[in-house]
Write a structure and sequence with these properties.
174 residues; 74% helix
């Protein structure tokens, strides 16, 4: 298990790619469960609406996994899906741990109304989001052997699709 966690950390730091993980559906499922638990803990620590943030998480996960599957099938390398998907979710686990640390060490989040109330913590959050997209580009580039422009196009497509889907959630649910 330590090797898997070390692989996730190395993928998060751009040291290793998805090829360092086995093609294992049980490992992907276990990693998704761990990430969901981390998302729940972070959401509760921030004191925001759990149902809404879980919905957003699952929409994002569905978009990432769907586009990754479509991409790798189109490139005729579907055998790379499980390692790539596991890499993406595993790296998200690492980032979720970082987010949990921010949530637990930051201010009383119920009093934060804007970035001026917690500028350092919120900047770290924004950095984690950008880092996550960088990891996604890195993993997809390695898994699909795409050029940089192609990889950025895929990541931008995932972002646009996810934001479009999230915008369809009724305002009352947010």
């Amino acid at each position: 298990m330590f090797r898997i966690v070390a692989a996730y950390l190395n993928i998060t730091l751009f040291r290793r790619g998805p090829e360092s993980l086995p093609a294992s559906l049980p490992l992907l499922i276990l990693t998704i469960v761990a990430d969901v638990v981390l998302v729940i803990l972070s959401t509760m620590a921030f004191g925001v609406d759990l149902a809404y943030h879980l919905l957003v998480y699952f929409i994002g996960l569905a978009m990432v996994l769907s586009v990754t599957s479509l991409l790798l099938n189109a490139l005729r390398v579907p055998e790379r899906f499980l390692p790539a998907a596991t890499s993406l979710v595993g790296a998200d686990c690492v980032l979720s741990v970082c987010l949990l640390v921010i949530a637990l060490t930051g201010p009383d989040w119920s009093t934060v109304e804007g970035i001026e109330d917690a500028p350092v913590a919120l900047r770290f959050y924004q950095l984690l989001v950008l880092w996550g997209y960088g990891i996604m580009a890195f993993v997809l580039k390695r898994a699909g052997r795409l050029n940089l422009l192609g990889t950025l196009g895929v990541v931008l497509s995932i972002y646009i699709l996810t934001q479009g889907a999230v915008s369809l959630i009724p305002v009352e649910s947010r």
